[in-house]
Amino acid sequence: MATRLKDTDVVIIGLGAAGGVAALPLAQAGIEVIGLEAGGAMTRRDFAPDELRNNVRNWPMLASQKTKQEAPTFRATAAQQAVQGGHPMMNAIGGTSLHYWAQHWRLNPWDFKVASETKRRYGASRIPKGSTVEDWPFGYEELEPYYDKIEYEVGVSGQAGNINGALDPKGNPFEGPRKRAYPMPPLRWTAFHEKMAAAAKQLGWHPFPGPAAINSRSYQNRSGCMYHGFCNTGGCHVDAKNSTAVTTIPRAQATGHFKAVTGAIVTSIEVDTRGRTNGVTYVSNGEEFFQPAKVVLLAGFAYENSRLLLLSKSKAFPNGLSNNHGQVGKHYFSHHQGAPVTALFPFDIGAWYGLPAQGVAIDDFADDNFDHSSHDFIGGANLWAMSDRRPITAAGMNTFGLAPSWGSQWKAFIKVNADRSHSSYIQKTTLPYEENYLDLDPVVKDPLGRPVTRITGEFKDNERKLAAFSQDKMEEWYRAAGATAVVRGPVGGAMGASTHAYGGTRMGDNAETNVVNRWGLSHEVPNLGVLGGSVMGTSGAHNPTHTVQALAWRTAEHIVKNWKAIAT
Amino acid sequence: MSDDRPRIISRRDILRRAGLAGAAAVAAPAAALGAAAAPATTEPALQAQSPAAPPREAFENLTATEAELLEAIVERLVPSDQHGPGAREARAAHYIDRALGGALASSRPAYASGLAALDRYATSSRGKRFLDLPATDQDSVLIDVETGAATGFAGSSAQFFGLLLNHTRQGMFGDPYYGGNAAFVGWDLLGYPGIRTMVTPADQKALEAHELKPNHKSAYDYETFNKATAQHDLHTHEDLAHGD
């Protein structure tokens, strides 16, 4: 029998990028919030610049047993047997915002209206077959104030490209209008970034520094970035990376209205006889607790959001909570981040230091920023040339057919070329399809005996064609900057567990095709909110965290403004 | 990468036929370096508390036979030559040995069966145990193992080769805290100027001008960091602990 704990107003499941943000506006309004976090707490002392631990041995998974034990299984199609893979996410106060790259992009206006804009400009036949893509229930303008809020509350560095319609050639000319500049200038560029920017301009493109939730100078009494080179899958040793563990969570705690509970694995969201949620059950150190709450916010990342709903069965919700329309787990997709391009330059790049959020971006081929009339795909790609190199990874570099992979010839090659290769990061529009979804694995279970999430998904024609197109553009850019050899990674494939996971609890006005409404609250359970990429119906060509956090703040603010109606 | 293979083989085949054994000829002087392979540091105080292991000649997990064979293999994968010390001097086999009792424990059976199979294959195909073959023949055996052509392995020999190469690189280029990359020979080979906790714009410019001096320190030589292990223990803060 679960021990019943003292009532609270709101319980948040998961204190990562999304839950950690939502806690702040609620606590600031005097609402009593308890955050349940499966992982523990870490400090800057835990973030050693140790490539072997962080990158080779997958520190995020080693450091958080829950994700390790609950890694989803995946398969490309329903005809296959799913196998369990790794998990890129971390359980801890701050979650994956501790070790993510912290690229903090707004979506562009087109991303909110992919379906209607594609039909308007190219005709309905251009929506890829089998895609379930819908417009968002609102446009970019609705989210702009929340993007702005996150940029200042969490701290984002960057170069504005469009302030109230006034374009600045130093920034992204394709971004939606913003009401003011970023609170911090962009992270610095290296000589290589300058070279890539010059090459892009020569091609007639519009290079600009990307936005990052990383301090480019001291901000909110925390240090600026030290560029030490271990930001990728590593926490920040000077707290310059603005994870929720050092930004919104401590500020929420300071209000006296927010309490974080670590080591709490939520096993079920409970409902009362009216079909409203009345709290959650969790396990901590083998003991079971019931935490009553007036409002529950589910913020466990895409895989756990769908899973926990599907596991929370009751009389009112026999197929899982908020799943009487069979939409939980549907419209799932992960960003098609694969299909990289790697180039060899005849000079040292100077990439031993720096970070993946530091670099040159090109949005000329993102979204619908170019005419697709003569192309056979919709959407586009953001091209990103960053800094990211560490020794073990460098030693494993592609040898471009110029040397074997071991022995004296390899050693001679690596001695000259270890700092001369560059791999692109190309973020591409990815769409939801009927055939791609999340459900519960029929075989694989966690140590508590609960099925893990099963991913069924593969990148379809639209993603593969777009990927090939973006590789052409990336190669063109590298060659213009002086690359002497270029190789391309494979396109498409199965969707394994990803840090950029979308859908499963999609947001939309239509309850027949969406799990949550325009405010992020369940269509079926009025006092249950869902936070995270799982509510996003499109990915755009940019990293999701900024949008996830803007939406989380917006949902929390809506709950504050409508507290009585939602909580009772 | 697999596209590279036919070319590698043909090039190596040519070398083999030409009887070029360059690496073996220069191995001797570099071997002397192995004796003084404790992580170098210019500050004696730091050295005293350095978590990096002192040189240990005894292996912890591999048998003497396995260890001797592994030493010979890693020496071929990253030979000592005119470009500097190799994996033997980096103590890559010692790194692997120690890790097989910890983070790489799940690979221990693969090493037992793979090393034995490799030596059997050397004997059956080249007439001598791997250790007794000249370097060029050792290389040709390793090429067979790499391409999956070697017989007598539990699975594909290519899989075992992949394991060996990955772990050897870890032992050559990883943080010396874990027992390899002795005297920072791996990082020096790559031109990696080392772990710093701060890189100023001036440092970056110096790097770009090839004027940045290598910083020979393990991450754990910085007192800033907890001496974490791969089986990292999360510590719970009292103010964040489970409550009512």
What does this structure look like?
The complex is a heterodimer of chains A (568) and B (244). Chain A has one domain: FAD/NAD(P)-binding domain (3-Layer(bba) Sandwich). In chain A, helix 1 runs parallel beside helix 13. Chain A is an alpha/beta fold and 568 residues long. In chain A, a hairpin with a 5-residue loop joins strand 10 (265-271) and strand 11. Chain A starts with a strand and ends with a helix. In chain A, the strands form 6 sheets. In chain A, strands 1, 2, 3, 9, 10, 11, 12 and 23 form an 8-stranded mixed sheet that branches. Chain A has a 4-stranded mixed sheet with strand order 5-4-20-19. Chain A has helices spanning 19-28, 51-56, 59-63, 65-69, 114-122, 140-155, 191-202, 248-254, 301-311, 391-395, 407-417, 461-480, 545-561, 563-567; strands at residues 3-4, 8-13, 33-36, 73-75, 83-84, 162-163, 166-167, 208-209, 258-261, 265-271, 277-284, 287-298, 333-334, 341-344, 359-362, 381-386, 421-423, 425-428, 437-445, 451-456, 485-488, 501-502, 528-530. Chain A has 14 helices and 23 strands. Chain B has 244 residues and is mainly alpha-helical. Chain B has one domain (2-228). In chain B, helix 1 packs antiparallel against helix 7. At the A-B interface, helix 2, helix 3, strand 9, helix 10 and helix 11 of A face helix 1, helix 7, helix 8, helix 9 and helix 10 of B.
